[in-house]
Specification:
Number of helices: 5
Strand content: 15-25%
Oligomer: single chain
Radius of gyration: 17 Å
Distance between the termini: 24 Å
Mean pLDDT: 92
């Protein structure tokens, strides 16, 4: 995105920007930069549709969710060694997006709070609207 915003997309602003499960591929500070870039290329009054991997904020809730997820994957025939590799990748290969990080970047850009449209286990989907 950074390269495109400095070349063929320089100064471009879009009515709709979709960022589907990209942020979980970046560590925290890189997520902030990406979010800032996304707000900069969204036109005034435009919409940023954003999805990301989010871990529960409460440690006990997180433990219970992981327990359920682990059992669901086992029930679906995922081999235990694959399951361990998946869970071991947390915050090493796949990074949780802190919802307060999203809200903070949007507030800094002068945007209202995001509207959460969906939450399913570890995934959330938000609609973020730039001020007209």
């Amino acid at each position: 995105l950074n390269g495109a915003l400095e070349s063929e997309l320089a100064g471009a602003r879009f009515d709709l920007v979709v960022c589907h499960n990209v942020l979980p591929l970046l560590p925290g500070e890189e997520q902030v930069v990406m979010l800032q870039q996304l707000t900069q290329c969204t036109a005034d009054g435009g919409v940023l549709l954003l999805s990301a991997y989010i871990e529960a904020e409460d440690p006990e809730s997180q433990r219970l969710v992981f327990k359920v997820a682990r059992q669901r994957l086992l029930d679906r025939g995922v081999p235990p060694e694959t399951l361990e590799a998946i869970f071991d990748s947390r915050n090493k290969v796949v990074f949780s997006l802190d919802p307060s990080r999203l809200s903070g970047v949007l507030a800094q850009a002068g945007w209202p709070s995001p509207l959460q449209l969906y939450q399913g286990l570890f995934s959330r989907l938000w609609l973020c609207r730039a001020q007209p």
